[in-house]
Amino acid sequence: MQLSSPLHTSGKALRRDGRGAGPSLTPRRKELPAYLSKWGLLDKGFAYDVVAVFGSQSTGKSTLLNRLFGTTFDVMDEAKRQQTTKGIWMCPSAYSSALVMDVEGTDGRERGEDQDFERKSALFSLASTEVLIVNLWEHQIGLYQGANMGLLKTVFEVNLSLFGGSDASKAKSKDKTLILFVIRDHVGATPLSNLTATLTADMEKIWASLSKPPHLADTRLTDYFDLSFAALPHKILLPEKFEEAVVDLRKRFTDRTRPDYVFQPAYHKRIPADGVGFYMEGIWDQVVANKDLDLPTQQELLAQFRCDEIAATVSEVFAASSKAVRKPVEAGTIVEGLGGLIREWLKTATANFDVAASRYHSGVYQRKRQALVDNLHASVSPLFLGQLKNAHKAAAAGFIADVTQALKTPSYDFAEVVTRATKDARERFLETAKEVTIEGADWEYEHELSLLDDDLKVIADKSRADETKKLVNNAERAVKRQLLEPVELALSKPSTTMWDNVLTTYRDVNGAAEKAYLSKAKSYNCTDEENAVALHTLRTRSWLVLRKKLEEQTADATVLLTLRENFEERFRYDDNGVPRVWKPEDDLEGAFKKARDETLALLPLFATIKPKDDELLPVVPEPDAAEAEHDSAAFDPDTALVLVTPTRLNSLESRFKREADAAFVEAKRSMVSSVSQIPYWMYGLLVVLGWNEAMAVLFNPLYFAMLVILIATAYIILQLGLAGPLLQVSKTVAYEVKRIGTDKLREAFAEPPASQRVLTEPVAVNNGTLADEARRRGDPLAAEKFEEK
Questions:
Q1: Residues in the annotated binding site
Q2: What does the buried/exposed string (b/e) look like for 57-67 if buried means 16 or more CB atoms within 10 Å of the residue's CB?
Q3: In this structure, are residues 77 and 83 in contact, taking their beta carbons and an 8 Å threshold?
Q4: Cα three-residue angle 492-496-497, rounded to 5 degrees
């Protein structure tokens, strides 16, 4: 192992090359501390971390490290596609106290079949670091060799044999290593959860297939390693998203507050910084001296080569067979009998492989056959997932159609409708999912089924929410219909019990509406929380209905009209409801003052909702943000029960008094005097002056008879109560006579027409003199005047 500076930045990196033993161990131990001192890490004690990258050649490992840690490792020239990193290089992180190792890529053409250094470097990285970054492309997931699963298996086995301890007391490692899979070029077609599940399952299978020492036979993968995952978008196609994902991934190495922080204390090797050189040299010596990392035999190599060739040919034929159904599945169509087609293709592929590869090394053949089956399953797993997604969409669409159709019927049980539609949708999905599931593949449709159940629940909840809104709207209309008329009637006849009547009606109507909603909501399987929200909405709307109606009834014009009607009822009518005819002896001022004061006493009742029974006071509901903004006064505890402000009360009182005063003046003018006030001396004068006429009437039989008839007639009229009607008739006749006389006078004094006006001029006419013309018109006075002239 040699120590040297990096290719581009002098004095910044440490190289560990596997070509030859190199210089003696002592100089190497002294050189690494010198670099640590130069980097300022030698005196850090335990406050440092070690991370390495592992993966196939030319997959962008050095680029990833440079972006994550600010290192200066050489990157590949994409125009040449050749090996860049040779051996193992070390560089400090620019963002934290971390040592970063860039390991030579695996499966490089420069080393060819020489996999000895690949295995040694991988084992060294796994044993000496806290976090091992496994860099791989998305399309490599599910592959055995492409994802370096074979190399990891060998490294795990040797790691257990070298560092697993020698007895049962050391069976469980005290120090664990985090393996962080960084999935490159993740396009999102396959969810990250599915990719992580595949990688986790592959790692578990590798661990289960290891040849463990007897005292480690019962150990699990989690006893030695923790698995973590991250995905990065395509660096070329999505550069901005790639950089954002890299920055977020970098925080996992620097931000200790994050729950996914990678440098956890459990992974630290607990080696002081000044002893790192000796520690790593000891690990490298053990790795180099181990014989289990030697190359396989020539027979196995031949079997691997031929089996790989046969598997590649079979895979090509298999891919061509499945190509015809990929487009329909990707387009969202459910391909009928897809599972049968996949089984037929798998049967043909494995049969062809068995015929050509079964004659080679049995162990290699069995491993390659299993790898082939796994690869074929992985290649058609997108068809399986696509068929499940299409079945999911079809089942959800059918569920929506069934529920919508059922809700159009006049009477339905919502819970029964949803249960029946859910059952039908699940059966349709399961029929397709079971048909496309292949035996032996690690495919499962339970996850997609659970997603379907979640979607069906969301759709059902939305439909139930819509139906619940309809229930609330119907209840609101019922409240409005039953509440408005009683409220209007109560406020049109104000009294001290007015608010008790209004609030009692409000409480009864609102309670009936809530009971009606709850009885209907039982068939919807609404939760208590949903019922609470719906009832709160109903109470809010009911309160707004009441408040709006009260505001209408307490508007200025409405209140004045109500007060005027109450005043007129008290002032213009007596206690029996008979209209009053005011007489001079009546106490008009007292009646007016009493009616006005009693009416004004009603005005404060409109100001505030204040019943006599405090238990009837309504509880103002808490409004939503939109409702509170729309009508904040209706929900503010200080103003919710206030309908008329003191300023408006004063204004209404002044306006009412003016209208009452006008009514008083009108009554004063219409007062009828039934008795004339005549001076007493007039009676004596009438007797003296009218004595002769009275005697003439009394002693004249004709006059006396007429007097008796008039007195008898007047008596009969009074007894029959006809005085009023006769008086009214007389007044009407007098009015008509007056009107006709007025019209005649106006016609007489009006300006005569031109045909008549010419006769008044002092000129002669053809028919005679003006006097003759005047006589002809029936005007002798005018004729005399003309004759005098």
A1: 55-62
A2: bbbbbbbbbbb
A3: no
A4: 80
- 300 or 577: whose pLDDT is higher? 577
Question: Can you say which residues are annotated as belonging to the binding site for GTP?
Answer: 55-62
List, in order, residues 6 or more apart from 520 with CB less than 8 Å away. 471
Kindly report each contact of residues 449-458 with a partner whose C-beta sits within 8 Å and lies 24 or more positions away, as own/partner.
451/392, 452/392, 452/395, 452/396, 452/425, 452/426, 453/426, 455/392, 455/396, 456/395, 456/396, 456/399, 456/422, 456/425, 456/426
The whole-number average pLDDT for the span 314-327 is 86
Residue type, 171: A
Q: What is the pLDDT of residues 127-161, one digit of tens each?
A: 788 898 988 888 878 776 666 676 677 777 767 76
Looking at the whole model, is its pTM more than 0.70? Answer: no
Range 47-270 classified under CATH 3.40.462.20: no
Asked if 75 and 100 count as a contact pair (C-beta separation under 8 A), the reply is no
Would strands 98-103 and 131-137 be described as parallel, antiparallel, or unpaired? unpaired
Chain centroid, CA 216 distance in Å: 54
Contact present, 88 and 17 (Cβ < 8 Å): yes
Nearest partner of 280 among 47, 85, 448, 32, judged by Cα: 32
The candidate with the shortest Cα–Cα distance to 137, out of 242, 244, 54, 56, is 56
Report, as an integer, the average pLDDT of 761-782.
54
Q: What angle do CA 239, 243, 247 make, to 5 degrees?
A: 170
Stretch 111-134: mean pLDDT, rounded?
74
Give the side-chain half-sphere CA count within 13 A for 282: 8
Taking the C-alpha atoms of residue 353 and residue 312, their distance in angstroms, rounded to an integer, is: 10
Query: Strand runs (DSSP E) across 153-309, as ranges?
Result: 177-184, 225-231
**Chain CA centroid to CA 395, Å:** 25
How confident is the model at residue 777, as a pLDDT?
A: 60
Task: Quote the CA–CA distance of 737 and 729 in Å, as a whole number.
Answer: 12
Mean pLDDT of 280-295: 66
- Among 53, 49, 16, which residue's Cα sits nearest to residue 179? 53
**Lateral strand order in the sheet of 98-103:** 14-16, 88-92, 98-103, 49-55, 131-137, 177-184, 225-231
3-state DSSP assignment of residue 264: coil
The per-residue pLDDT for 628 is 56
Q: What are the sequence ranges of the domains in the chain?
A: 47-270, 300-444, 467-669, 680-749, 754-788
> According to the model, what pLDDT value does residue 82 have?
47
Mean pLDDT over each residue of the chain, to the nearest integer: 76
> Which tens digits make up the pLDDT trace of 510-526?
888 778 777 777 666 66
How far apart are the C-alpha atoms of 136 and 156, rounded to whole Å? 18
Q: How many CB atoms lie within 10 A of CB 193?
A: 10
The percentage of the chain sitting over the pLDDT mark of 90, rounded to a whole number, equals 3
**Tens-place pLDDT, residues 599-625:** 888 888 888 888 888 787 777 777 766
| Structure-model confidence comparison of residues 86 and 174, the more confident one | 86
Spatial contact of 253 and 206, defined as CB atoms under 8 Å apart: no
Buried b (16+ CB within 10 A) or exposed e, 3-31: beebeeeeebbbbbbbeeeeeebeebbeb
Long-range contacts of range 737-741, CB-CB < 8 Å, 24 or more positions apart? none
Task: Tell me the C-alpha distance between 263 and 243, whole Å.
Answer: 22
Torsion of CA 785, 786, 788, 789, to 10 degrees: 120
